[in-house]
Write a structure and sequence with these properties.
Layout (H helix, E strand, L loop, with lengths): L2 H4 L4 E2 L10 E3 L10 E5 L18 H10 L4 E2 L20 E4 L7 E5 L15 H11 L5 E5 L20 E6 L2 E2 L1 H9 L5 E4 L15 E6 L5 H10 L2 E5 L7 H7 L6 E7 L2 E17 L3 E15 L6 E7 L5 E4 L2 E4 L10 E2 L1 H41 L1
Length: 385
Amino acid sequence: MIVPYFFGISYKFPAVKIFKGDFIYNPYNEIDSSKWLKANFHAHSRVWLGLTNGSMNKMHDIVKAYEDLGYDIIGISDYMRINKYQSNSKNYIPVYEHGYGVSKSHQLVIGSDEVNWFDYALFQTLNCKQEIFNKLKTDANLIAIVHPSMNKAYSPEDFRYLTNYDCLEILRHDRNSLEYWDTALSNGHYVTLLADDDNHEIQSPGETGRCYNMINSKTSSRNDVINSIKKGNSYGVDYLKGDHDFESKKNNLQYLAKLESVSVKDNIVSIRFSRPFNEFKFVGQNGKIKKTINDSASASYEFSKDDTYIRAEIMFENNIKYYLNPFIRYDGEKIEKYIAEIDYTTTYIYRSTLIIIPAIIFIPFFFRMRKKRLFKNGTKINSIS
């Protein structure tokens, strides 16, 4: 449990930056209106002899509940275990929740076939968190930070610096993490959204079918879905709250607005839905509301020279909310990704300190105890002679 701390790594985090460029990245530029997939990646079943949360959830019940609500992708994200219950399904994508420390600093690992058991179990500094991401991340998988505010596992300030993760779970059945997302975006980290139930009680309408993802993907294959999420070809839905039963949730699905078109031309973002919304908010740098539109089916916003990114929050009837991925400034070719680099000097000093200080304390103690034992043995010998 304490061994990883003796071999920890220190990092040089990239200087705080903002999105820059003469072009606006549109994550919905190539969406196909016939290719939307409804997905939840965060639900728990009974595992580890029922010692973890979700011990009353049976796998069959989880799948049935989400199928009844029209889900295409049903992720069972057991703690530190890849659940293969649906592995024969064409829509199966392996996922597990990583992290077993007391701080509740957890991540969803989507698309990996093996569990990585590395973690800092007692406490986590910014360097600890970055090292965990680096050990979990591969070119083929997707890493999402989940419930960052729980137990104060992460602070908003952390998101100014952390790198090498893909998504932030901005919606959970009982909270949102928009402040953390805006901090990351305001400091030049292109992080896309994830919206999940984090279900531990499948019979509860407050936890089941509450928050979900709509993903625009060519197919439901692992690679296509993961790439779509990374690029931002998705949006999050905060659906009916727990005071609506399952029948109500199912019946209301037919009335949900569809995202019909999203375009960017001459720095103007234009968005249209199939049904009118009650309120549409364009949100920018540091979470500031830049523009609000009421009672329409379409909305537009023109980037000013000071805007680095713009994201959208849309409120419909029954307090149903949609959250879109951000439109950001870039050079027109690729979005720059910042990666924290290992600080070898600081790492060497850190590791040496953890060895030298205990040695300074322990070695004199060892010699005192040894001398004491020799003295006692010598006394006994003399008395016998």
